[in-house]
Amino acid sequence: MRDLNFFEQVWAVVREVPRGRVTSYGAIAKALGSPQSSRMVGWAMNAAHACPDVPAHRVVNREGLLTGKVHFTPPSAMQQRLEAEGVKVKKDKVVNFDELFWDPVKELGM
DNA sequence: AGCTTGACTTTGA
DNA sequence: GTCAAAGCCAAGC
Questions:
Q1: Is residue A70 scored above 60 in pLDDT?
Q2: Do residues A32 and A8 touch, judged by C-beta distance below 8 A?
Q3: What ranges make up the beta strands (E) of chain A?
Q4: A50 CA – B7 C1', rounded, Å
Q5: A31-65 per-position pLDDT tens digit
């Protein structure tokens, strides 16, 4: 893990996110050791956009809001994919986010 | 080569 | 309780 760049680490975590589940930038950043590096998670997602193995649509902000949907192609693809996985999205916001939230630190034992 | 911005979060006032 | 600032790493200009 330490040998990988920040992006690689982020991708590794996001890739472990179960289908129909969502996580937050802060949770991933925290799992990497720096809760405040959540911004980089966003950049990582931007780079991960080219990686089909990295479900960036399952990554939302800490409010469960699809803040990065505008970076998708098309932007509505994010919500569409989430709904396709069983995740209800209302007004760009994940419904039952608290239940659907997937914490890498807790699940991965970090 | 250096400064600014960026898909966020936490903490301080 | 709400507003403002700091912090993180990388890419763009």
A1: yes
A2: no
A3: 23-24, 59-60, 89-90, 93-94
A4: 14
A5: 998 899 999 999 999 999 988 899 999 999 999 99
Residue A16: give the domain boundaries.
6-98
For C7, nearest residue by CA–C1' is A36
| Strand C nucleotides within a 7 Å radius of protein CB atoms | 6-11
Q: How many Å does it take to go from CA A39 to C1' B4?
A: 15
Whether the model clears a pTM of 0.85, i.e. scores above it, the answer is yes
How far, in Å, is the CA of A61 from the C1' of nucleotide C1? 22
CATH of the domain at A37: 1.10.10.10
| pLDDT, tens digit, 9 for 90 and up, residues A75-108 | 999 999 999 999 999 999 999 999 999 999 998 8
Domain count, chain A: 1
Residue A52 Cα distances to A9, A56, A105, angstroms: 16, 9, 23
Residue A73 beta carbon within 7 A of nucleic strand C:
no
Evaluate whether residue A16 is within a structural domain. Answer: yes
Q: Does residue A35 form part of some domain?
A: yes
